Amino acid sequence: MGAEKSTGSVEVIQRADLTGLPQWAIAFRRQRKDRRYYEILEDTLRQGFDFRYFIIRNTCGEISAIQPFFLLDQDLLAGTGLYAVSYAGDSADLASLSQASDVDARLRRRRRAP
Predict the structure, then answer these.
(1) pLDDT per residue over 70-110, tens digit each?
(2) In the chain, what is the greatest distance between 2 CA atoms, to the nearest angstrom?
(3) Contact 78, 90 (CB under 8 A)
(4) Which of 22, 16, 82, 73 is nearest to 50 (CA)?
(5) Are residues 59 and 41 both part of a single domain?
(6) Within a 10 A sphere around the Cβ of 68, how many other Cβ atoms?
(7) Which domain holds residue 95?
(8) In 3D, which of 76, 73, 54 has the Cα closest to residue 65?
């Protein structure tokens, strides 16, 4: 019979919570881009990016890895025009894009044509 598998855990934290961890001070120390790279990146790249860090703990609760990541809240339909947005079905976006470009105007005329 197989042994029961135990697992660790993953926690998501912000940099303010990370700076007090001794593991962060030595994170990526053997890499060209050590922890300072991620700190500089977070300090300078502000255009809508939300930086977080995975803290991966082993079964004893000790930190075994730290993995930086970022999130970007982005409207994937922005700039695509009325035609693409019409398939998404958001009437508010349709109204705001109704005068967006000449291409959209031509598409609207084609739809109205008998």
Answers:
(1) 988 877 777 776 666 676 665 544 455 444 555 556 565 66
(2) 73
(3) no
(4) 73
(5) yes
(6) 18
(7) 82-112
(8) 54
Report CA-CA distances (Å) from 62 to 9, 19, 24, 73: 10, 16, 13, 32
In contact, 54 and 67? CB cutoff 8 Å: yes
DSSP 6-17: ---EEEEE-HHH
Chain CA centroid to CA 5, Å: 31
Q: What's the confidence (pLDDT) of residue 56?
A: 94
- In the block, tokens 């803290």 appear at 55
Residue 2 is assigned to a structural domain of this protein: no
Under a CB-based contact definition with an 8 Å cutoff, are residues 18 and 38 in contact?
no
Q: Does 16 share its domain with 66?
A: yes
Q: Are residues 65 and 88 in the same domain?
A: no
Percent of the chain exceeding pLDDT 90 equals 35
